[in-house]
Amino acid sequence: MKMLAGFMPTIVPSRQAALQRRRFLDEVVDLDQRVRYLGAMIGLPLGPAQLDEPLTADQLADAIPSPHDPRSARALEVAREGWTLRDVLAHGVIDYHPVVAGTAADVADHMQQWFEAEACDGFSIAIDSYHDGFDSFVDQVVPILRERGLFHDDYEGPTLRENLGAHEQYGLDPRLTKPARS
Fold first, then answer.
1. How far is the CA of 123 from the CAs of 7, 107, 127, 176, in angstroms?
2. Are 132 and 16 in contact (CB under 8 A)?
3. Closest C-alpha among 101, 45, 46, 39 to residue 76
4. Quick check: is 23 in a domain?
5. pLDDT, tens digit, for every residue of 75-93?
6. How far is CA 80 from CA 32, 73, 105, 108, in A?
7. What's the rounded mean pLDDT across residues 67-73?
């Protein structure tokens, strides 16, 4: 079985630029709903009025990561760094894939770390913006991965299925393909 880890790269020159890009991308989503969801993750009643403020000392003392959401500990960790709620969200703490926001080398480092730790066999990349995110990944990250010997072009077959070693009907129970008896 092959494991593809999903993540969302935001490729920019610095961490500050990453937060600016993520804030820009967040403008098209319902931030009110995201703030309330963040509050549910860390056990606090949060609302949109607090969007541009960090959590207070009392809120941080009362906050508890949800045992039902593994992202909640990271959300609280980022909030404790003193970021505004808008910036906490820009860190990607409630996104369903990990967000790697930084330089192309930061993204390549993340991929290399996961791959060399045998945490995955490859990646399912959710580009943050199809306007320029795909080109940034191909033009900036792929050359670094090639240089490190982590990206190759010599695949065995023309399809992903063949390169994963999956049979044509992988996972399909043969009992389902037999005609029904009358």
1. 7, 12, 12, 31
2. no
3. 39
4. yes
5. 999 999 999 999 999 988 9
6. 21, 11, 26, 27
7. 92
CA 39 to chain CA centroid, nearest Å = 20
Asked if residues 93 and 74 have their Cβ atoms less than 8 Å apart, the reply is yes
Whole-number Å distance between alpha carbons of 79 and 35: 12
Tokens 């906050």 — which residue? Answer: 63
Tally of domains within the chain: 1
Q: Residue with structure tokens 């080398």?
A: 105
For 144-169, the pLDDT digits (tens) are 999 999 998 887 788 877 877 777 66
pTM of the shown model:
0.72
Q: How confident is the model at residue 170 (pLDDT cuts 50, 70, 90)?
A: low
How many C-beta atoms surround the C-beta of residue 112 within 10 A? 15
Domain that holds residue 36: 4-147
